[in-house]
């Protein structure tokens, strides 16, 4: 092993990457854009559902009822409509996703102790959102109903309102959300996006960097020279590991400062674990580069190999524990899952090596295995 | 001691026997035997796909092989560890102009990278870099990114990078392809100098037959086999004969008669070129006269056959008979030949601050073959794109069939045929399907499609290939199919952009045959670009382009006569110490003296007096002259002369300004 040759290859690679505009953008701008687009785009919270109201009663009680929707952060009031036809039209054009229709004599019948039906029209084109919207409507509706009952009991029995409430709701549910106290999906998704971004950008950069030499023919400079396989691979991969590590830091800063995700863990541990992850993800790029000859093929294969398992099995969207047994096995085969554990653990749970050591070791094994395979298959005297 | 005497005494440096190399289904090398001695410049000559690159990669230890034995520096290269043991002693320049260099790095950074990869000590590196950059005149461009170099400069930089660690063996794969003739000569001068100075051995491949004389020894390759090996004269001697060039009218009739007796008959613009096995000059002339019958030949000249004649003769001997469709159907109508087919008036095209085409003007008549020559990047393709209306000119005017192509409608465009460098064929369709597709694109009706299909199959000699996939056709056949497709709608003007790249000489001759018949018989105007100077001889008229400008224009004959008037006649000197001879000649005032392999070329204004003077200069310095013979000028000589004159002019005007 000769350090001068490694340094020669590495410095050439570094200069090419920062001077070639395409590669520069790929190396430094793509991860930031990716983080911004997905950080905002992959928010699964259902909030600010646009809705409209047809109030046929226009009484104090109907306003009281509707007021609970106006106040909710889950709904966004778009205005009063005159008829159901107008509501249909607004739903059709997508201006609103829900309409609440209060019938005539709403107040009169309630006061008379008669049941009243409130018609709720919900856009069903996105089943998940529809269900969540329905749950919100039910929750607001039952809260209103319960309060009516509490009022009734307190008046009938001549007891204080608090006593009446205790009788009507004998069991109160006390929920405390751990780690992500406000149950914001941003807090959960943005750290996972950090994983996703590194998982895609670093193998892509590595694969393209190596295949570029194959495509132009400059790889023959390496083949025909005295540089050893190890020296070449070490020098070639070093700049990409470095760039990806820099990106890990940049993405961490974005997550904490821009997206406001709290970081509860130990930063040195997190950075060290990220380095181990970057070593394994660049290894994937190396492996892809050995299989293909053209940059376009490298691009496609890397995107597929890096993205599909990461989206499905890394715990990005669906927790690994709720996958089918077969999928769980697959999840353990890709490095994404381990780093997702590390990222979410470090950001939200504030845990470190004492808990996440298995994941760190798995990534380290991954990085080592990929390099060994890459070293075995890279040849300076290929068949074609 | 000079290179020639060394070669006879030294051990073989490379020994290849029974080499076979296969890529999946495709046999690239089918049993090659080769011995290369120390100190030689050894040439591998052949068309694309002949197996040159595979052979060189195997020797450089960067490609594995299936059968045979390869020994380099006495080490059997049969595994990766064995290959590693030869790599510190060799330098390899892969194919593709500048493709192995790093475009984002500067000239100096590229050199440094190669040197440091080879662990050249920094002090040696500084010395060698300074010396090599000075020799190649790249020292002014040290800091320029490689991507902004011209083709010739890239090639010289590639050579420096390959030689910076002073290897004993340099393996250079097509270093001159796509480089302008001036840079090419420069390259050969530098290589020859370095080889002699360092006692280096060089294995060099080329697709240009006319570079053969640059080599000490060479092998002709075709289809994975060696056709012949030896010194240029030995190879030439394998096929004794003469090349006869003359004028005869009517040309088509003369060609038809000669083809009955001779296997190699070509139209070269207004001239006819025939190879005959007769070595006696008078007898050769007589045989031509016999073949012509009552047609008389004018301006007859008899030369030694060039290597291309030899190559084709060897191919023919191997039983690769001419697969030409010799019976061309008679033209349907005598078309109107008057008027200009193409007219370029001061065409200019800028790409941002870069002027790709600079005030180019020329005219092409109906029935004329007009050649646009120049290296890669000289602006040929840009001119064609402007004339065909694909690219709007920045300035000037391009008229085709009387219409301004910028404003021309579809009607005019339908009268133009265009065949691009990449042979715009659909490789997954058969020959007939391709022709039908093009007929459909041009909206031919059923009847017309049928007649054109028949005509194309016969014209292009495609009979027997009708239902083969275009992708499976040999290059030469594929190229003729592409030509056929470009002709499906009976265009009056045909644009061909480097149509013969990668086609072997036999295929190239067949192709030119078709072109000259199209022009003579059907009156089609043809504008063709090529960087093969030898092909240019086939054109009626030529324009040489250099750096976006037309350097000279005229018929091949006129151009040569003009240069001969200005610079004198070309002489070839064979002497025992060629390198010293060049130095002595230059000192004696023959500035144009240059080394061609083991021979020296020089211009003499007065054949008698100057020759005498040259001989005296050589004799007085102890060089023994074996022979001094007059050589016909090639178009390459013309090009080099013109560009050099231009550069001198520029230099003069620059220094004039600064005074």
Number of strands of chain A: 4
Topology-level CATH name of the largest domain in chain B: Rossmann fold
Q: Portion of residues in helices of chain B?
A: 25-40%
Name the helicity range of chain A: 55-70%
Instruction: Please tell me the overall pLDDT of chain B.
Output: 85
Rg for CA atoms of chain B: 25 Å
**Largest β sheet strand count, sense and barrel closure of chain A:** 4 strands, mixed
Tally the helices of chain B: what do you get? Answer: 21
- Given the helix and strand composition of chain B, which structural class is it? alpha/beta
Oligomer: heterodimer
The CATH homologous superfamily of the largest domain in chain B is called P-loop containing nucleotide triphosphate hydrolases
Q: How many angstroms does the end-to-end distance of chain A come to?
A: 27 Å
Q: Globular, elongated, flat, extended or rod-shaped: what is the shape of chain B? A: globular
Number of strands of chain B: 28
Count structural domains of chain B: 4
Features:
heterodimer, A: 384 residues, mainly alpha, abc type-2 transporter like fold, 2 domains, 4-stranded mixed beta sheet, 15 helices, 69% helix, elongated, B: 659 residues, alpha/beta, Rossmann fold, Alpha-Beta Plaits, 4 domains, 6-stranded mixed beta sheet, 21 helices, 28 strands, 37% helix, disordered N terminus
């Amino acid at each position: 092993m000769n350090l001068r040759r490694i340094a020669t290859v590495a410095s050439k690679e570094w200069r090419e990457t920062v001077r070639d505009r395409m590669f520069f953008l790929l190396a430094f701008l793509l991860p930031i854009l990716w983080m911004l687009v997905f950080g905002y785009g992959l928010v699964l919270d259902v909030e600010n559902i646009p809705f409209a109201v047809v109030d046929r009663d226009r009484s104090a009680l109907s306003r009281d009822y509707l007021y609970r929707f106006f106040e909710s952060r889950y709904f966004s009031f778009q205005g009063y409509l005159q008829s159901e036809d107008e509501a249909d039209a607004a739903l059709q054009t997508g201006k609103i996703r829900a309409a609440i229709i209060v019938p005539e004599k709403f107040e009169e019948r309630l006061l008379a102790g008669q049941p009243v039906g409130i018609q709720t029209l919900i856009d069903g084109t996105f089943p998940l959102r529809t269900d969540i919207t329905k749950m919100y409507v039910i929750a607001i509706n039952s809260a209103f109903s319960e309060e009516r009952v509490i009022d009734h009991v307190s008046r009938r029995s001549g007891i204080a309102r608090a006593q009446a409430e205790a009788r009507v709701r004998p069991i109160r549910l006390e929920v405390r959300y751990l780690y992500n106290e406000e149950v914001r999906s941003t807090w959960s998704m943005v750290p996972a996006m950090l994983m996703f971004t590194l998982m895609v950008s670093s193998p892509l950069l590595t694969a393209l960097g190596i295949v570029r030499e194959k495509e132009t023919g400059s790889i023959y400079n390496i083949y025909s020279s005295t540089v050893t396989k190890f020296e070449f691979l070490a020098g070639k991969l070093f700049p990409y590991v470095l760039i990806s590590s820099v990106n890990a830091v940049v993405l961490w800063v974005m997550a904490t400062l821009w997206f406001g995700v709290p970081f509860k863990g130990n930063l040195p541990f997190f950075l060290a674990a990220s380095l181990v992850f970057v070593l394994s993800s660049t290894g994937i790029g190396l492996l892809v580069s050995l299989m293909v000859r053209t940059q376009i093929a490298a691009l496609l294969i890397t995107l597929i190999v890096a993205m599909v398992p990461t989206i499905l099995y890394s715990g990005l969207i669906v927790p690994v524990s709720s996958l089918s047994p077969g999928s769980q096995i697959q999840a353990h085969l890709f490095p994404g899952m381990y780093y997702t554990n590390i990222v979410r653990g470090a950001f939200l749970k504030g845990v470190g090596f004492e808990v996440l050591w298995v994941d760190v070791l798995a990534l380290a094994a991954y990085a080592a295995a990929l390099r060994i395979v890459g070293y075995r298959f890279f040849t300076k005297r290929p068949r074609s | 001691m000079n290179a020639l005497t060394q070669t006879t005494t030294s051990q073989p440096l490379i020994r290849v026997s029974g080499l076979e190399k296969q890529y999946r289904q495709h046999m690239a090398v089918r049993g090659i035997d080769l011995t290369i001695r120390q100190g030689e410049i050894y040439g591998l000559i052949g068309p694309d796909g002949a197996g040159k690159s595979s052979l060189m990669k195997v020797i450089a230890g960067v490609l594995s092989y299936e059968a045979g034995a390869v020994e380099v520096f006495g080490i059997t290269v049969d595994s990766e560890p064995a290959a590693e043991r030869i790599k510190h002693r060799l330098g390899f320049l892969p194919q593709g102009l500048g493709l192995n260099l790093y475009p984002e790095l500067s000239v100096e950074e590229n050199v440094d990278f190669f040197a440091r990869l080879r662990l050249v000590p920094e002090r040696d590196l500084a010395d060698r870099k300074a010396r090599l950059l000075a020799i190649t005149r790249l020292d002014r461009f040290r800091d320029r990114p490689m991507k902004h170099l011209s083709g010739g400069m890239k090639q010289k930089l590639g050579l420096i990078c390959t030689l910076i660690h002073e290897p004993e063996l340099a393996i250079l794969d097509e270093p001159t392809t796509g480089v302008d003739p001036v840079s090419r000569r420069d390259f050969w001068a530098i290589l020859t100098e370095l080889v002699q100075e360092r006692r280096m051995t060089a294995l060099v491949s080329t697709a240009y037959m006319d570079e053969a004389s640059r080599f000490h020894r060479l092998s002709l390759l075709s289809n994975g086999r060696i056709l012949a090996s030896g010194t240029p004269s030995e190879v030439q001697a394998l096929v004794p004969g003469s090349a006869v060039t003359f004028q005869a009218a009517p040309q088509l009739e003369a060609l038809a008669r000669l083809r009955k007796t001779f296997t190699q008959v070509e139209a070269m613009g207004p001239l006819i070129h025939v190879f005959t096995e007769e070595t006696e000059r008078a007898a050769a002339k007589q045989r031509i006269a016999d073949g012509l019958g009552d047609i008389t030949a004018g301006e007859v000249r008899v030369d030694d056959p060039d290597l291309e004649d030899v190559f084709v003769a060897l191919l023919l001997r191997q039983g690769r008979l001419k697969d030409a469709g010799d019976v061309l159907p008679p033209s349907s109508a005598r078309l109107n030949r008057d008027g200009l087919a193409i007219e370029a008036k001061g065409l200019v095209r800028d790409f941002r601050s870069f002027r790709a085409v600079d005030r180019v003007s020329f005219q092409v008549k109906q029935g004329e073959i007009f050649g646009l020559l120049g290296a890669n990047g000289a602006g040929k393709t840009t001119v064609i794109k402007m004339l065909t209306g694909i690219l709007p000119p920045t300035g000037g005017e391009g008229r085709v069939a009387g219409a301004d192509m910028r404003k021309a409608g579809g009607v005019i465009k339908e009268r133009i045929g265009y065949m691009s460098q990449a042979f715009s064929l659909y490789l997954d369709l058969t020959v007939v399907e391709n022709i039908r597709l093009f007929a459909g694109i041009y909206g031919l009706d059923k009847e017309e499609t049928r007649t054109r299909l028949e005509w194309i199959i016969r014209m292009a000699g495609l009979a027997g290939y009708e239902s083969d996939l275009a992708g499976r056709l040999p290059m030469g056949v594929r190229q003729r199919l592409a030509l056929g497709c470009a002709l499906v709608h009976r265009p009056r003007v045909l644009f061909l952009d480097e149509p013969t790249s990668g086609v072997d000489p036999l295929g190239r001759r067949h192709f030119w045959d078709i072109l000259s018949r199209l022009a003579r018989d059907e009156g089609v105007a043809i504008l063709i670009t090529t960087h093969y100077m030898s092909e240019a001889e086939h054109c009626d008229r030529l324009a040489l382009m250099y750096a976006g400008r037309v350097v000279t224009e005229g018929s091949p004959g006129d151009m040569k006569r003009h240069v001969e008037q200005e610079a004198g006649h070309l002489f070839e000197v064979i002497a025992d110490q060629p390198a010293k001879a060049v130095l002595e000649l230059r000192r004696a005032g023959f500035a144009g003296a240059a080394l061609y392999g083991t021979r020296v070329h020089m211009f003499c204004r007065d054949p008698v007096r100057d020759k005498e003077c040259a001989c005296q200069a050589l004799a007085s310095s102890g060089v023994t002259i074996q022979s001094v013979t007059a050589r016909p000028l090639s178009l390459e000589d013309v090009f080099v002369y013109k560009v050099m004159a231009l550069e001198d002019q520029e230099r003069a005007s620059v220094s004039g300004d600064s005074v």
